[in-house]
């Protein structure tokens, strides 16, 4: 039965009892007394209902308060997890999140640090004797970005394709930048487009012409002049014909990079063989397909085979440099490989600050030297060998390719001049060749004579070395024999010394006994 019905029955019985009691009391009480008692009863009943309603309201709001408070605590815990990566509940339990604002900011800082600043959508404004001027009044790639539903709800305006009028580019004189020629996404082959957008923004409907990607490397340039809307660049090395031809297209835009793109294992991890073939030469595709997969000790180079290990106990490694991060770091890592700048540090709180932790049973991949050290210390055990491709330094590769191209061009020019001389003056050229042959034959004869002398000196040195080694063996044999003789004499002297000590001790005792017997 419902508790409210029981309450009403009890109240009804009390009312009936009060009415009956009032009727019987009216025979002896005055009318005023009966009215006062009735008024008190009605007031008591009203107060009781009012108190009940108050308690009911309090109970309802208290229940909602407890529910909201619990929900608020959960939300605050979740906010703490999302902000800091961990939070402490009321019970003292520490809960952690896989991703947090702090960790994502740190990851973003690392990505931006590796990428450096980028100035897309720069147009050629003119060429000088050994320079090029770029117009940066429209730098930026806002036109490539589509307005999302979240931006529309937030009231953000759609991008109009141009940077803000007073948006500073931040380029300074004497800065070194890397220039690339940009190509609209619509102008890239379908397979290459799929490979470039496999892990990025793939919905570019209506933006294929405005979204551009760097496709041709133009070279390394130094900034010689700067204005709010333009910069003048000077190549750091003489440009090749192919670079000059690519620069002549004044309709195409340039992209300037503060840092040469950095190679990474994760960039190409999601690409399949077809997509890799659209980006790389056939002779290097295997390196990307085998990357971080089980290696073959019989075929793969030893330096490319890293160790996959499993930790037998908890272990921690200090990955951040000691002390506070410097405001202007001079290097990314110290001499033991620990991160120095703030944006590269692992972070953390308290005793866990700057330490990468591994728990028992966790698996990781290390270079052979580090893995051998951990295994020898009994911290982990080897599971397998994993192929890890060598990361490419694109700046060095472009520099070496430029130097190689310059060397080949010089060789080709020299061969061309020699060919022209042979064609123009065949008799003189033949005489010059004969002269060179005679000079080289004379040089060969001198070298043969030097070789004979060097051979004689080598033979004499070999003989001398053999004589010295023979003498060394004789001296070693003599010293060995002398050592053994000395060792035997030491043993003999030790025995004689012991006998003399025993004889002296015996005579001393006998003399003492004789002195004791004399009266």
Primary descriptors:
519 residues; alpha+beta; Elongation Factor Tu (Ef-tu), domain 3; six-stranded antiparallel barrel; four-stranded antiparallel β-sheet; 11 helices; 50% helix; flat
Please provide a brief summary of the model.
This protein is of the alpha+beta class. It has helices at residues 3-25, 31-84, 101-115, 149-154, 190-196, 241-247, 273-277, 282-289, 368-376, 394-424, 426-517, and strands at 86-88, 94-96, 118-127, 132-135, 176-184, 212-227, 230-235, 253-257, 293-294, 305-311, 315-318, 355-358, 363-366, 380-387. Helix 10 (394-424) crosses helix 11.
Can you tell me about this structure?
Mean pLDDT is 82; it is low at 146-166. The longest helix has 92 residues, at 426-517. This protein is of the alpha+beta class and 519 residues long. The strands form 4 sheets. Strands 3-4-7-6-5-8 form a 6-stranded antiparallel barrel. 9% of the residues are buried. Among the domains are: 3-81; 101-146 and 161-262, Beta Barrel (Elongation Factor Tu (Ef-tu), domain 3); 425-500. 50% of the residues lie in helices and 16% in strands. β3 and β4 form a beta hairpin. The chain is flat and about 160 Å long. α10 (394-424) crosses α11. It is built from 11 helices and 14 strands.
Between the first and last Cα atoms, what is the distance in angstroms? 130 Å
Largest sheet: 6 strands, antiparallel, barrel
* Strand segment count: 14
Work out the helix count.
Answer: 11
The CATH C-level name of the domain at 101-146 and 161-262 is: Mainly Beta
Radius of gyration, CA atoms, in whole angstroms: 46 Å
Order of helices and strands: HHEEHEEHEHEEHEHHEEEEEHEHH
Helix-strand makeup class: alpha+beta
The fraction of residues in strands falls at: 15-25%
Q: Could you report the average pLDDT, rounded to the nearest whole number? A: 82
**Might you state the CATH topology name of the domain at 101-146 and 161-262?**
Elongation Factor Tu (Ef-tu), domain 3
Outline? flat
Helix content: 40-55%
In the sheet with the most strands, the strands line up as 3-4-7-6-5-8
- What is the level-2 CATH architecture name of the domain at 101-146 and 161-262? Beta Barrel
**Parts with pLDDT < 50 across at least 5 consecutive residues:** 146-166
